[in-house]
Design goal:
The chain is of the alpha/beta class and 120 residues long. The N and C termini lie far apart (31 Å). The chain has one domain: 3-Layer(aba) Sandwich (Rossmann fold), CATH 3.40.50. It has 4 helices and 5 strands. 35% of the residues lie in helices and 18% in strands. The protein is globular.
């Protein structure tokens, strides 16, 4: 688990945010994923599993997406106004400046959510 993920998700959950986890995993890993989330105490409202590069096709209405896959991030940008790309070595091949915002920690994510909430 990425440092700060659980704590940030708990803070967002306590503020009343709906947390939807979209993951690109094989369908037969659904129960493994749910068990891991429960074991780690990760709060969420819904878990949606999809194929790699197709998460953005999910039938879900979101205000903000945190993504680490550039293909999905670009797909989400057509549906969701606020896209955060969690910085990883595998997603640095595309300059996302202006299209989506790159974040480097879960604290960055929390701060972005707070700024969006304040701007409403």
């Amino acid at each position: 688990m990425i440092q700060g993920a659980k704590e940030t998700l708990e803070r967002l959950d306590s503020q009343g945010h709906e947390i939807v986890i979209l993951t690109a995993r094989f369908d037969d890993l659904n129960s493994v994923t749910r068990n891991w989330l429960q074991k780690k105490g990760i709060p969420y409202s819904r878990l949606i599993q999809s194929k790699q590069g197709e998460k953005h096709l999910a039938e879900v209405d979101l205000d903000l997406v945190v993504e680490d896959d550039l293909e999905d991030a670009i797909g989400w940008s057509k549906k969701v106004r606020n896209i955060l790309v969690y910085d990883h070595p595998w997603n640095q091949s595309f300059n996302v400046k202006g299209l989506i915002k790159r974040v480097h920690s879960w604290n960055d994510i929390f701060e972005e959510v707070q700024q969006l909430k304040a701007a409403r």
